[in-house]
Protein 1
Amino acid sequence: MRRSIASISLTLVAAAGATVAVPAQVAAQDAISLFNGTDLTGWTVHGTERWYVENGELVGESGPDAGYGYLATEASFKDFELTVEFLQEANGNSGVFVRSHVDGTRVSGWQVEVAPPGRFTGGIYESYGRGWLIQPDLGKDTALRMGEWNTMHIRVVGDRVTSWLNGVEMVDLVDEQIGRAEGHIALQIHDGGGIKVRWRNLRLVAR
């Protein structure tokens, strides 16, 4: 059952007091914290890969099946700005899906890529559809700090999606199919095994 933003209990935090970097135009607004730092309240696990909380951080890790895994918000969102921090351990092939729907381990929607160096972090990929819609210029890959905390900011308004990595604009895409959609935010574990990514400070401002 799809729930609206108002139908779930989420903690409000002041974005102005956050430690993560966000574009100036949202710095003075209130943000919703999607992760409470304690458990997976407000999220749904899809697949058999591992999602758990450790030291106040949300961890996604490959399980014994080494398949795809997703952790999706129970709430649906359309227009928003999302800021997340991630740290890639081992192979960091992951991503943040927007306006998505998950059925088992099959996802529809659009992924803002999180990947090891040279694998187009910040680009936008449509799973089970058109594939890569846009990739950042290779020179922008220097913004990624493998093995350290990174800040990703994603703006989804109407048919436009923009991503920033550590303050660097990675891509800016206008797409009619994205504009018609609404759905969940979902974190991914890629198949293949050996993947581990930590997440924290997942904060959203509705637009």
Protein 2
Amino acid sequence: MAAIHSKNTKPELIVRKYLFAKGFRYRLNHNRLPGHPDIVMKKYRTCIFVNGCFWHGHEGCKAFRIPKTNTDFWENKIARNKQRDHQQRLQLAKMGWHCITIWECELKPRNRMQTLVALEYTLNHIFLCDHSKGYAPFQEYHEMAADQRQTDENVE
């Protein structure tokens, strides 16, 4: 398992090259966010995870099969990975981030363009929805602070 790398994988490079060619700019493996997302797009408040089907337990995928030897170990490991992924996405959602997961099998040559175009459409949709509402990062914080100031003034 030491030979398995988590950064700059082939599926991740495919997504990054497509996004860059379409004019999207991003950061890689942001270490201040839970789960260190593969691609972070601050302008869109979006984190993109490019997951391997085996390592993250992609149900219903041909690439996800539990090995026939040491099955207890692998079932526990993949279950822990899935639980950790779920918790990290919940934390990101609470922080106001959108999370997109792209599976390795969705980037196979026959499905690749459909997946990448859908990703581009989703990012544009997120941007338009957030900005049409006047969404600003930390807007909720400012509203809560204003409410607190008003409450403090009423108490005095």
Protein 3
Amino acid sequence: MLPALSEENQRAIKGTTPKQVMRDLEKAVDEFAEEPGDVTVLKRLITPKERSKLELKLHRMLVWVGVLTPFEFELGGKKVPLHDIVWDLLAKDCLTDDEKEYVRKLIYRLQRHEKVDEDVLHNNELTVGEAKQIFREASGLLRAILSLKSLVGRKDVCPVKTKTNKRRLEEAKYWLNFLKQIS
């Protein structure tokens, strides 16, 4: 049995939205990931060994596990609420053809940006902090891409739409048979 929450904890939870919780969690992860007290480590250039280690980690099969989709992401010079878009699309039961096309275009643009992140990580002189930031962005984009890819494949057929169409067809057949019987 869970202990009762204190009044302070209840007040903190009462006004909290899921978006705020996710931002707090992302901030805590970022703070925990950095090595406290050793700022010089984050400012020095990465070694070739560290670079190859990050590149290999980025190509692991489950690199996106535990990584958050970026909350906001710049696409075409505009900040887009990527996390909200992915979340809203995943919550839908069915996607229209326009939405599927939008998702495909979004996947393509995110893949292009993730590839650029990989190229930057591979070809440029970066500090440890910059390399970690690029790695986190690329892995977050991979998370969004995989979520969206599974979404398009999984929601090709709308169960509600097919049930409605099937019911309409059955009703039409019923009325045609009824009209044949009375005439």
Protein 4
Amino acid sequence: MSETEDKIPQEESVESETSTDSANIENSSSEPNDELAEALCEKDQFKRLAQRAQADLVNYRRRIEDEQKLSRHRNLQRIVLKFADVIDQLDVALNSDSMQDAEASWLEGITAIQKNFVNAVSSEGFERFSCVGEEFDPRKHEALLSSPTADHERDSVITELRPGYMYNGEVVRPAQVQIAVALPDEN
């Protein structure tokens, strides 16, 4: 064989080796790129998972704080309403006919105790509301009695049997009242 013929197969083999090496380089370089892309994808997934977990924790803390606030509010209402019952009993006692015969100093003491209870309830933000003459509102009033009368407007509060209490503009104990109803027809 001639030298030129010898060179051609060798060049071809060199070219084929070069192309094989470049393919191997591309394959080996694409493997790290795939691993890098996969690692970045995992990093993004973990980041999103961490953000979700952090948001869940913030929401949990907020919900717990709201529940604790609501629980404190309910406990305060429960305690204050017990005081309101004592105030009502003291009001009944002070307004009874038998109190007219009581000693003045004893009466002053009971009145002072009643005022202290009222002040303690007021200092916690609970306010008594009076409703005589108002139109009946089922959110504020609990109608225990109704009286047919021409002296008062229909569905108006005639008498307050037990005062109501509000806290931050919200009724916590409705007032028990007597309301006016229309006179029955004579027919």
